[in-house]
């Protein structure tokens, strides 16, 4: 956007980032809060984004040998209790079903029927390791049953009080993979493979650069031996954890008795993994790309690639304009990109053209086309793109336009990734001095600090207390990045001066 | 299956239909009961069926202008209370969330934290009219916002004590459409249109013939003005309601204050509809087509169309057989049918060929192919089909096989529908005498009785008490069926002798 122009979203990112985010989500019609505390309503434009995420991820899961299945929404309390760390991690904020009936109350209205109390309370799943573990224990008998590679698309509930649309809600939609293997090596390979799937999805589809690597012990999934994550940088320079993959060792197989007979006819506990990503990805997508005019959607996940609408001058040539639009929309729909046909929205609503334009800008549709009598007469198409100023336009002949638009979409997808990568890299800094770290977070706006750490939780507490920062992960050096080599250098802990074998990524986070 | 052969499923349909059903579901690996009372686990083969159902239905919903969205899992008690009939229908069997935390109990272990009691109990949605109504009230302001055409894919919970896999479970997966319109006529048109979508889906995809029409007042959805259903006949001659579409009038818009400003600037309540179908469809599919050898899947919804595996004779030409199979499988995958590529499962598991064959028979894969050294040497493919005796086989040259298999799949889809239609029609009877009705249900095995009814609930009660039968619907005459015309004849109620304008469909049901 050119300077001095008024932007469509108020406040701007610079004025109030948190409020800007809510406003972008609202203005793009992605989601809204619901009358049920902590639960959101995902509106059609937001849900279409989720459907696109689902479709592409699901394809990647199936290509790596996984099958979908569905397990119960409820987890008996006793199941959750089987793994001590796990239950401690989730018991504090869960929805508990205690009764199965309402009856008329003494003063009219309905009350919970005290006679209909469950023998054992049921927890609405916050994650499904324990219930799926109990089922896997039946499915896994022999080494022939392994590996067992399952994924579930489902809703989960974690009783959050401070919620933000997509980023943190009591109920959210996600997928959770659960696998069982005959050997530790295989399970570790699976954990790593799915982390790579998440990273590939984030970068190639969401155009969101990520770092990937193990979390520290204090940031592990409750009950896991190792947790790996992908971490992205938002435009406020805070990190967003966008997917996690857990090596669970034999912790859950011991808790759930997932045992198998080996080829040698001995019995062993299986090695399990789990991995998940959620509607939180949409929050990451919004915060990575959007600007002060609203949502920006990477074309590869866009619910619609192109929005077209007419601009009439009185009654002049109305019919011809409508025909021209319908015919051109169909020509675009015959163009395939990334394995699917272009999605084209023809917007014939009876509202002002200017309002329409800004609506599509705010919704982040990658390409906008207004067709007026002059376009029809000239046999041309005038195109505006979401990654340029709203007023910048290019005119193509109708014949060349489909190929040009296809190229614009590809360029836009690439451009968004490059811009986000540049932003991430510009805001990543090697810091070996504790005072410089303070200045980085408190004065210079923060970002990813690559620091040496002595491996102790005490130092992690100090990072948190002093700078509200946490170790995001022990990142693998990302390819093609100038500072990548600095990650694996040895040195001395920025707090204690103790030796450190490599640098870690320290940042404030969502 | 030829007579005197042992069948793969025990008991057979004739021996114990209910038990046969459970056994087919189990043997096909579709689903199983879970450790959570009333909730099922949908296994990969069953879930793949559901994914195919979802994909095709979703396409039909979108083609009729609907968009997907997602609404909260929880419904505050006060919302459910807004519509009196509605709450009466669902309060008796619902899962109630009363607390949001577990804490350590005095004797160790976890207990529900009495301090974490919710101010208002939340009901796990049994259906979402009331919560979606509250949201629609915000979305609908002007006639310009109408029609509002929304669908949701979700899980719902109704606290059932007597459950059967797919047919009746406490938690199930479904889709629920919710729409709001400016006029009664439009809402009635929508109700009818979605009933037609369900009927088309049942017949064209599931190969399951259905009757469609309004339910009687006593069988209406709680809170609806009119409920329409599709009704299929299972092989035990009982009816299965497989989808419902409700005209809700202004009942829910009054309860939820869904009001809009008309063009004339007056304010009116919107007219709403809702319509749903669920994983119960899978139960209907199983009971419509399966036989005493197990599941039979209509090819159009089959998770895999073809299963291929090798039969080795010692070590002779192993490698050549495997190559032949992989190459032929890929040739099949290049064949498109019903808008998608054929799904081919190459089964290389190290188990006996005979076991493998029966496993695929029981799973209902439409076409099975065993490849041995003689097939490779002769350049042929030997094909067995699920709609013939397991031992009947046809041999094709490899070159002609893909087209032949495609034709077999089409023929099988058509054949299943024809067989099921014939069965339904053979077991549909016009009955005008009450004693003949008794004989029909109690001695002749029942079916669909086309009877005159005086329109009173008293007569419906008598049907239920005397024959455990209910009026399934006031069916539209199905096209191309001999008895269709008999539906619209006038006559006298089979119980009271009072005049009746048309016949209704009376049957025992699931």
From TrEMBL, chains A, B:
Main location group: cytoplasm
EC number: 6.1.1.15
Subcellular location(s) of the protein: Cytoplasm
Domain Aminoacyl-transfer RNA synthetases class-II family profile: 46-298
Catalytic activities: tRNA(Pro) + L-proline + ATP = L-prolyl-tRNA(Pro) + AMP + diphosphate
Keyword Aminoacyl-tRNA synthetase on entry: yes
GO MF annotation terms: proline-tRNA ligase activity
Domain of life: Bacteria
Record-annotated membrane-spanning stretches: none
Pfam families in UniProt: HGTP_anticodon, ProRS-C_1, tRNA-synt_2b
Keywords per UniProt: Aminoacyl-tRNA synthetase, ATP-binding, Cytoplasm, Ligase, Nucleotide-binding, Protein biosynthesis
Enzyme class: ligase
Cited Gene3D superfamilies: Anticodon-binding domain, Bira Bifunctional Protein, Domain 2, C-terminal domain of ProRS
Assembly and binders: Homodimer.
Domain remark from Swiss-Prot or TrEMBL: Consists of three domains: the N-terminal catalytic domain, the anticodon-binding domain and the C-terminal extension.
Family: Belongs to the class-II aminoacyl-tRNA synthetase family. ProS type 3 subfamily.
Protein function: Catalyzes the attachment of proline to tRNA(Pro) in a two-step reaction: proline is first activated by ATP to form Pro-AMP and then transferred to the acceptor end of tRNA(Pro).
Name of this protein: Proline--tRNA ligase
Species whose genome carries this gene: Pendulispora rubella
Encoding gene (name): proS
